[in-house]
Write a structure and sequence with these properties.
Helix 4 (102-117) crosses helix 9 (265-282). The protein is 46% helix and 14% strand. It has 398 residues and is α/β, with parallel strands linked by helices. The chain is globular and about 65 Å long. It binds pyridoxal-5'-phosphate.
Length: 398
């Protein structure tokens, strides 16, 4: 039976990682992989996480099953973090939060839940969007359409075109938006734009679906959820997928959550059963370790303040690197305007080099980035920035 299988082409980002590891150039730089890196190029375990793990190791008394929706206290903690106390209280039983295996697991759970609510639903994603959105959503049997989002020339959101497109989306369909730190572009909606999205969603009756993978890595824990809270306050329905992979550095622990807000307590009750059944049919229940860490950190004043400081340090480093990159690019004699890098948020931006220049950067300079020219800003540091900007200057002038 298996002789007839043909292999899929290699995953472009993982392929890049393999090529990077094999490269012997001492100046090589990996701008591809999407994890936070510190000034030494490492992705360390956060110290609040280490301390929480120690406590869990010494106090856990059982590893018995938890259940398909995961740990109830963790779910409420994530809901409070994304919604804030006021909304958390006012939404009451209109909201349910279910633990998921990372943000990816939460997105998949959301897609299966949507399929049950409306088998014909189309999910509108931003053009461009995170590469995994499309396979995730379509493999759950939903249709995908793209709405305009990023202008590669002006390096800004094509907001009027996006709104025009959303004005044609109707009830029963969904609009998937990045809560903050848009991946791959780094270009986020401003406050007025979020309000306009809310207004069009109210008028058209479509359901907004938020992917919140980077809360705390843009402007701050509360600042980054401005849009989500605007929507949660006014819309009858909302789907939010949270990830603790980046802001707690829990990547491999698979820690996320799906929050669904319905127009009535009764609909939320029904939604909870459907989501729990989807979890049960897929993986039975989510892994516990990462969720236990998050729960402990958020409820212990000392650990929480330590985590807050570490997260602030990560965010400040990324934002500082954005300014430094713009400054050093100019200092390298590059005349093109790269100031957009400083305006964008989170780990990613498009460098804006063209399809011929990307392979030149990889093959001639050992600077690894994906074909779209998306770079992970956190991969830049004092030891590699001058090599990066001088190489870029050579490639752009050749
Ligand atoms: C936009 C976006 N959504 C979701 C995820 C999923 O994160 P995870 O499944 O690791 O929690 C990522 C990770 O890179 C992402 O960039």
């Amino acid at each position: 039976m298996f002789q007839s299988l043909t292999p899929l082409p290699p995953d472009p980002i993982l392929g890049l990682s393999v090529a990077f590891k094999a490269d012997t150039n001492p100046n090589k730089i990996d701008l591809g992989i999407g994890v936070y890196k510190d000034a030494q190029g490492n992705t360390p375990v956060m110290s609040a996480v280490k301390k929480a793990e120690d406590i869990i190791l010494n106090s856990q008394t059982t590893k018995t099953y938890v259940g398909p929706v995961g740990a109830a206290e963790y779910n409420e903690t994530v809901a409070r973090m994304v919604l804030g106390e006021t909304l958390y209280d006012s939404l009451g039983k209109r909201r349910v939060t279910v633990q998921s295996p990372g943000g990816t697991g939460g997105l998949r759970l959301a897609a299966e839940f949507i399929k049950k609510a409306n088998a014909d639903a189309t999910v509108w994603v931003s053009d461009p969007t995170w590469a995994n959105h499309v396979p995730l959503i379509t493999s759950a049997g939903l249709k995908i359409e793209k709405s305009p989002y990023y202008d590669y020339t002006s390096h800004s959101v094509r907001f009027e075109e996006m709104l025009d497109c959303l004005r044609r989306v109707t009830q029963g369909d969904l609009v998937l938006l990045h809560g903050c730190c848009h991946n791959p572009s780094g270009a986020d909606l401003n406050q007025q734009q979020w309000q306009a999205v809310r207004d069009v969603a109210l008028k058209q009756g479509f359901t907004v679906f938020i992917d919140m993978a980077y809360q705390g890595l843009g402007d701050g824990i509360d600042e980054d959820v401005y849009g989500v809270r605007q929507l949660a306050e006014s819309l009858p329905e909302l789907i939010i997928v949270s990830s603790c992979s980046k802001n707690f550095g829990l990547y491999r622990e698979r820690t996320g959550a799906l929050t669904v807000i319905c127009d009535s307590d009764a609909s939320t009750k029904a939604a909870t059963t459907l989501i729990a059944a989807a979890a049960r049919a897929n993986y039975s229940m989510p892994p516990d370790h990462g969720a236990a860490i998050v729960q402990l950190i958020m409820h212990d004043a000392d650990l929480r303040s330590e985590w807050d400081q570490e997260l602030t340090g990560m965010r400040d480093r990324i934002n500082g690197l954005r300014s430094l990159l713009v400054e050093r690019i100019a200092a390298a004699g590059i005349e093109e305007d790269f100031s957009f890098i400083e305006r964008e948020k989170g780990m990613f931006s498009f460098l804006g080099v063209n399809v011929e220049q990307v392979p030149t950067l990889i093959n001639d300079y050992s600077i690894y980035l994906v074909n779209s020219s998306r770079i992970n800003v956190a991969s830049v540091n004092e030891s590699n920035i001058d090599y990066l900007t001088s190489s870029l200057a050579k490639v752009l002038s050749s």
